[in-house]
Amino acid sequence: MRAFDDPAEILEMTRLVERFLAYVRIDTQSDEASTSCPSTAGQLELGRLLVSDLAALGLTDPGLDENGYVLATLPGSAPGVLGFCAHLDTAPAFSGKDVRPRLHQNYDGSPIRLENGVVIDPADSPELLQCLGDTIITADGTTLLGADDKAGIAAILGLLEVLRAHPDVRHPTLRVCFTPDEEVGRGTRRFPLERFGADVAFTVDGGFTGEMNVETFSADKAIVTFTGVAEHPGTAKGKLVNALTYMGRFLARLPAAESPECTEKRAGFFHATDAQGDAARCRASVILRDFEAAVLADRGRRIEAVARALVAEEPRLKVEVEIQQQYRNMRAELERRPEIAARLERAIAAARIEPRIEPVRGGTDGAQLTARGLPVPNVFTGGCGFHGPREWISTRALALSTCTLLNLAQLHAE
């Protein structure tokens, strides 16, 4: 195996950074309120560009299907089919319109100051201190950057570009899929699994250099509906049951110590994400997260207990709780195939990086694909500060992601 471990070589021999800068300028924010697939037109715009780029690299059958999934194939020189995936959309939590990337060359370790008073400080993002001398890419402070996950897309294109230029590098057939709407939890809803046809795959959607993920949160969503008793406020004494008031009491009783802002590492949480309605009837959405299935189920029971307590206090109030399953931890399935994670560790180490096995405090397309029978761990992209104006990536870190994918492809050829 030829170990790829020189990011400078990758940056010189590919259009990795050029492609990334082009991709982030396309607004691909997904929209949870939309019922279409993909949920936004910008994802189709990026998809069409990627089909063109894949065709230019000589991949067979590049195409954009009716649901916005981009697929293509690079025939291999070894048996088997290995998949690589990344997602087209950016998070709806912060604007992704008119992204204006900024390149900060020869980074010196000082805070990076952007527009709107946005500062990316090594005190808050210590990974920056591992990037001294690098070129750092940010947005301008008014938008997110979109490295999540356009860095993953660019890294995969870099992989393909190197393999086309070096046909002597042995690899299995590679199947590529770029998915829509991952950020709103729909990335695999219409994933063309049979057409994809991989034996194993990797999402390229992780964080800083060296990170690999074989475990995610398990996730449920609680929809809690409050129905009160409507009455004119002028004659409301003893009659009105204000649904909004009781929704506020419900939210206040969720344990503050088990919220996202108070938890880290392997601690799960309750997180209210949406509320709507009026005094007569209203609804709150609460996402439930934990690494252990039994603890996640208990979180659902605790939500129901709070609802019952409110009804006991005011019997005229009606509270309905619906628990919706979202995704499950992929750990158990991947533990049945330990060689997959072992190859990923070897691929990272071959790039002269220390592998870091980190649990994902969220979900990936890989979690849902793993549940459907296709093992899909997650690989780092090199980015940090996702979903906000302090998002950044080092060009060297991005190139190291491509190095890792090149090593991974060769290891699967063995």
Give your account of this protein's structure.
The protein is of the alpha+beta class and about 425 residues long. The chain folds into two domains: about 5-215 and about 330-414, Zn peptidases (Aminopeptidase); about 220-325, Alpha-Beta Plaits (2-Layer Sandwich), CATH 3.30.70.360. Helices cover about 30% and strands about 25% of the residues. It has helices at about 5-15, 15-25, 40-55, 145-165, 195, 245-250, 295-315, 330-335, 340-350, 365-370, 395-414; strands at about 60-65, 70-75, 80-85, 100-105, 110-115, 120, 135-140, 170-180, 200-205, 210-215, 220-225, 270-275, 280-290, 320-325, 355, 380, 385, 390-395. The protein has an eight-stranded mixed beta sheet with strand order 1-2-8-3-9-16-10-15, with helices on one face. Strands 4-7-18-17 form a four-stranded antiparallel beta sheet. A four-stranded antiparallel beta sheet has the order 12-13-11-14. A hairpin with a 7-residue loop joins strand 17 (about 385) and strand 18. The termini are close together.
Strand order of the largest sheet: 1-2-8-3-9-16-10-15
The CATH architecture of the largest domain can be named as 3-Layer(aba) Sandwich
- What is the CATH topology of the largest domain? Aminopeptidase
Overall structural domain count: 2
**What composes the largest sheet?**
8 strands, mixed
Mean pLDDT: 96
> What is the strand tally?
18
Strand portion: 15-25%
Category from helices, strands and their pairing? alpha+beta
Number of helices: 11
The share of residues in helices is 25-40%
Give the CA-based shape. Answer: globular
Q: Give helix and strand order, one letter per element, not per position.
A: HHHEEEEEEEHEHEEEHEEHEHHEHEEEH
Rg calculated over all Cα atoms: 23 Å
CATH superfamily of the largest domain: Zn peptidases
**N-to-C span:** 9 Å
Q: Indicate the CATH class of the largest domain.
A: Alpha Beta
Which segments are poorly predicted (pLDDT under 50) over 5 or more consecutive residues? none
